[in-house]
Request: fold
Amino acid sequence: MMARPSARAGWREWAGFTVLALPTVLLGLDVTALYLVAPSLAADLRPTSAETLWIMDAYGFLIAGFLITMGTLGDRIGRRRLLMVGMAAFGAASVLAAFAPTALWLILARALLGVAGATLMPSTLSLISTMFTDPRQRATAIGAWATMFALGMAAGPVVGGALTAWAWWGAVFLVAVPVSVVVLAAAPALLPEFRTRAGRLDLWSVVLSLAAVLATVYAIKHVAAHGVDVQALAAVLVGGGSAVAFVRRQLRLEEPLLDMRLFANGAFSAALAVLLVGLVGFGGMMFLVTQHLQLVGGLSPTAAGLWMGPPALAMLIGGLGAPLVAARVPPGNVMAAALALSLVGYALLAFVGTDDRVSVVAGFAFLYLGLGVIAALGTDIVVGAAPSERSGSAAALSETVQELGIAAGVALLGSLTTAVYRTAVEDWPGLPRPVAQAYGDGLSGAASVADRLPAGALAHAQDAFTGGLNTAAIIAGLAIAGASVVCLRTLRHIRPIGEAGPEAEPIPSTRGCDDDR
Reply:
């Protein structure tokens, strides 16, 4: 199929992009801001290990759960309108999180942030697809968008560490307030409105999609923490049954919540799979690397955040450079090569010790480089395959797999590291029961009672944690190697961006739309 004719974007579209970049950076920042704040937060709120994981994961899991619904809702009520409503809600929920008096309060506030964030992510990406119809401009804009999100993730530890040192951990969330004000003021002037003439939202589809995602997430977390038991099996049955019922309902509806025809496009499905695997590896390793820099390397939150600067630069190079390379080389080949190169980073992390700070940061820089490439090109393939009135749904699917990948990576690789730690750590005789429990629970627990441990105990705990990180890097690296092969086998037919040929074979448009610029 020949590339679709399109007009090139002008100054207004690029000015609008700067507005969309603000919530995009903010969303990325909120994914990782707590990574380096976790020790200070733990000292203040004293969450259990389970509560700590929920504080980290609730945001990503709720975004993943609501993205499909919000993407379709934006297509129907207006993408700019949904962006503005979500931005106001995000600012309000951030204030609640900033002043949380208990761990449970913070978990609930992070969940509300996830629901609000689910309105922002598909709105920003689908508006980009509306504003930039030229394939090369669209790829450049999506690459910059992906870079903004990843730079927000990279800035999260830096901002979190600096604000914690300067004020307190809750100040991290207050960054959202001025961003919300700016976006709400500028959006009506610089962003177009776009809505389809589709029917009402099917509430049963919403319920089934939530049940499928959230039950699956619960099963992952429960198995990672407690192994396979009746609760885990029940969650798998609920999640799987809800997913089957959801798909069957979408195939029957005239106006489905999710158009299942999107998955008939092989490049669309393969790109989603690569994004999912890539983000599982990246999300889990970022969580472990930031913990290693603080709890093993002994860095302050601010210093650890600054050490994450070089990996962020690698992400910038990958996200902005990938569309330029893919204008001459098939995008699938570029993605495969980037994933193969990131295996160098996983190999470095698989062999680091407790005093290999440079190797840890260098290894993670390779991971960030690979992420920048697959996020930019994979997202462009997914969004480019959908007709304009379905770009909200396509954007939501892309973000669903990425958010779920990050959250699942934290849960799976974090729990794997904890399991290795608990197997390797030794019981120290004579410790008071609370100290022994904290020591055996994980490295953060051992660090919290370091002044009550005998000589050598904390170093032993650090060795055990590092062994868990090594194991997690090996497992993640094997998955990334598989994703690289998938790119070569399933995406190699896609021509360079802007060339005549199947960029990503678009699915025919069957619905009308209202485009109010």
User: Anything to note?
Assistant: Residues 1-5, 508-513 have pLDDT under 50 and may be disordered.
